[in-house]
Each structure stands twice: as structure tokens, then as C-alpha cells.
Amino acid sequence: xxxxxxxxxxxxxxxxxxxxxxxxxxxxxxxxxxxxxxxxxxxxxxxxxxxxxxxxxxxxxxxxxxxxxxxxxxxxxxxxxxxxxxxxxxxxxxxxxxxxxxxxxxxxxxxxxxxxxxxxxxxxxxxxxxxxxxxxxxxxxxxxxxxxxxxxxxxxxxxxxxxxxxxxxxxxxxxxxxxxxxxxxxxxxxxxxxxxxxxxxxxxxxxxxxxxxx
Length: 214
Hints:
It is a single chain. By secondary structure, the chain is an all-alpha fold. Helix content is 82%, strand content 0%. It has a single domain, classed as Up-down Bundle (Glycerol uptake facilitator protein), CATH 1.20.1080.10. It contains ten helices and no strands. The longest helix is centred in the last third of the chain and has 32 residues, at 182-213. The relative contact order is 0.17.
């Protein structure tokens, strides 16, 4: 029970950090020319801090789904729940500021994301899962702090600039824009599935390569 509570708190903090990165992205995107580039760079602070403080983020942890036992898989549910709580909380807290720039730009982002079609959302979230795996796994493997941070920032910038869908970031956007509905929830479930498939895709291929190499 103590482990579950620790993981839940850690996961809520991760959701909050992703939301804070999202706030920076939205402000930059809507404030000046080429702001989206600077915003995508600042958005990466969320994952950098999560890695630095060894917090729990679903899209990073799900990558190791097949390498761990049933207890890990149960913890994944707790992590996802905590991430969603953190992202929703920070989204509605930011909404209380009644900042027109922040809320209107969040609404523009959400309207686009909810208009792309479920298959497109699945594919874009799949790509996002791949980028998150590359960021997290490289950070695990590298002992060079500069290289580790550089790869994380580059992977995050790629997925943000490419419009890939991240389930926890989208949860923050939905909450800030206050657009929750059955349709929004359905999109979120598809994106969670896409992130999960993308996250386990490369580890599965690497596992096949390792087996064939022996």
C-alpha cells in the first residue's frame, strides 16, 4: 500500500510537470513569430525534470511493459491515474487565471486535435510513444548528462513540432480548454492506446534483434 501511494504521488507530480511545460508551450505559441519552436523547447522541461527527479510517467514506464512482472503492470494503472489527476488539476488551476491568451490558444490546439480523426490520432500518438521511448531509454543508457539532456530535448521537440499526440499533455489541454465530453474521452483512450503501442514497438523490435543475434 505504501508503494502504491508513493507511486500515485509521484505520478501526480509528473502530470503537473507536463502541464507546466504545456503552459509554457501555449504562451510561446500564441505570443510571437516562431514561438512554437521556443515553446516546444520549453515543453521538454517537463520530461527533463521527471527523469531528473525519477518520477513516474505512464508514457515512459509503459515502454517496459513486457520486461516486467504483473505487479509492474498493476502499477502502470496507478501511474496513468496519477498522471491524469495531475494534468487535469493543473489544467483547471491554470484556467482559473482567466488568461484569455492561455485559454483561447488551448482551445485552438484542442479543436484541431479533436478534428483529425481517430485513425490519425492513433497514428500520431503511436509516433509520440516512439519518441518518448527514445528519450527515456537514451537517458537510462547514457552517463553523459549533456548528451542525455540533448537527446531528451530533441525527442520532445520533434514530437511537439510534428503534432504528435501525448495522452497526458492532451489531458492538460482538454482541461485548460474545458472541453470534456464522451467524444473527448474516446479520443483520449485512443491516444493512450497509441502511446502504449508506440512505447513498446521499438523495445519489441530490439528484443527480436537480440534473440536473432545469439
